[in-house]
Amino acid sequence: MAGGSMTPAERDLRYYAALGLAAEASHLALAYFNKRESLGTTMKGAQDWLTVADGKVEAFLRERLTALFPNDSVIGEEGGGEASDAVWILDPIDGTANFAHGDRNWCISIGFLADRRPEIGVVAAPALGEVYAARRGAGATLNGDPIKVSGATDIARASVELGWSTRVPAANYLKVIERGYAAGAAVRRGGSGTLGLCHAACGWSEGYAELHINAWDVAAGIVIASEAGAYINDFFAGEGISKGNPILCCTPALASVLKEITGIG
Q1: 75, 89, 93, 147: the active-site residue
Q2: 49, 102, 134, 159: least CB-packed within 10 angstroms?
């Protein structure tokens, strides 16, 4: 089914399906998290962690989504996939390094795009007891309660999270940190890009930026943050779905200064 022919009811069905699947996937992921000897941790590269849970959670989500919506395509961090007019973009465990170390700051990310436009985002952080959810045009929630960005206007009072990627030279990352501190911002890193977007959506920080990030890390969070009132750059421009792009998400009044600090338009 092409995204353009999807009715509001069909979009709502996908939203409620995503909420249900996130709840089921949370139980599966927590079972591994609470029994660390079961994780079977390996490394895909420097600081690029992989556990058995990543594969199991993604396989579960793929199987259920394919059964429920056989005409939709699925892209996942572990199994790849091809985009279509109606595509699910999954990160089974975002923040895998945190997950593997027993840190609770990790999540399951389920995003849906129709005609390349982000429509649905559900992010479950079960170890924190948090579920973020949004549909385009319907607002964003945390555990069912509406959320919105902080509305802060002073960068010298802002807290900004900056993600780090091995795909970008460390010197570039350090320059952004330096410019952020010089502007007066508090710069931090939490280890989950998805939750970084969600925390900006809640107003717990003023923004999240990363010089390169993959679509599965942000597809759900972009919907949630935008519905909470955030400024977000055009992440899905060009080959954003297949190859990733920079991301800048922030409370709107700080967009211009954070564009200068990060170099992300």
Answers
A1: 93
A2: 102
pLDDT at 42: 46
Please give the residue range of the domain that contains residue 113.
3-146
Residues 206 and 160 reside in one and the same domain? yes
Q: Do 112 and 43 belong together in one domain? A: yes
Query: Which entry of 72, 161, 206, 217 is annotated as an active-site residue?
Result: 217
pTM, 2 dp: 0.92
pLDDT digits (tens, 9 = 90+) for 18-55: 999 999 999 999 988 887 665 555 434 443 445 778 88
Q: How far is CA 242 from CA 75, 80, 83, 168, in A?
A: 9, 9, 8, 17
Q: Of 99, 124, 146, which closes a domain? A: 146
Edge to edge, the sheet with strand 117-125 lists 73-76, 86-94, 107-114, 117-125, 130-135, 140-142, 145-146
What CATH number has the domain bearing residue 65?
3.30.540.10
Asked if 77 is an active-site residue, the reply is yes
